[in-house]
Amino acid sequence: MNNKYEVILDTMPETENHIEILFRQAGDGFIQVEYGHDQRVELLDSFRILAVDSKIKKMQIQGLIETVPSLRANLIHFDPTVISAAQLIDKIKEAEDSVKGMDDMVIDSRIITLPIAFEDSQTKKAVELYLKQVRPDAPNCADGYNLEYMAQCNGCTVEDIKHMLLSTDWYNSGCGFWPGGGFFWPMDPRCKMIVPKYNPPRIWTPEGAVGIGGACLFTYTTATGGGYQLFGRTIPTFQFSMKHPQFKDGPFLYRPSGDRIRFVETTEKEILDIYDHVHDKTDYVYDIQEGQLVVKDYLEFLAKPEVQAGAKEFEEKQKRGSAAAPKL
């Protein structure tokens, strides 16, 4: 008798429209639909997942409870007493087959402009506590911040890092890790910095801290632990009390997927003043523009010679920087 437990229940072979699709068992009532075996940062995967997710929901499948789309996977929650995993996979395959190219896809996508203060006192406090309480010899904490280490890993300067953070929109592929958090990715490949996470993680991170792990950016919604490299602090993106009008329908600023954030540099004094006007006075007006992301336009942007050349040049710098930077 073979007792081997097979996690991958089914697959769809690669086609001109998608890479290989894996259907993984993720518990008695969950299936994870995953694009490819290898981890990769391709926003087109996220765009396709959203398109297929929309098709699945319109099918009104009996037993489907909810879906959790992300960068390259979709977690499907279902009731196994109503529909079997095999039956549900057949339905998902139908949805996948119905989505062809991305050229005609338009995604509802808000642009949220967030002020950010680089090298603020709370971020510095988190790094100092890490050096004192966790790892005194951490090589990523020069001068009380992580910016210098981020620059080393990417073969560039601290000013280059700041410029890249401010120069691209950051696309939210889904929410998770911590209540209200979003997983944000650079839309301009020339700004795709990559850094390792803390080793081991921090035990404290301030509300509003902004960090990067791998190529993923995260804004910390509350004080918590964490492992992303920190570089600054932004305004509140979560309010449990829901006192502020922006949070009257729920405590989260970000929608589950599709939002884009855009950073503008400001002073720490301005950031602290906004905290007061969000959590206490509750009269701060968030800069949020409703909009759409036209995938065809984005593909044309990616195809521009200057974008491709710039991305390739930066990738070469990264390789040299990663090889020379201290290992965590």
Automatic annotation (TrEMBL):
Residues 21-254 form the Carboxyltransferase domain. One of its GO terms (molecular function) is hydrolase activity. It comes from the Bacteria. The keyword Lipid biosynthesis does not apply. The keyword Hydrolase applies. SMART domains: AHS1. Gene3D superfamilies: 3.30.1360.40, Cyclophilin-like. Keywords: ATP-binding, Hydrolase, Nucleotide-binding. This is Carboxyltransferase domain-containing protein. It comes from Candidatus Limivivens merdigallinarum. The lineage of its organism: Bacteria, Bacillati, Bacillota, Clostridia, Lachnospirales.
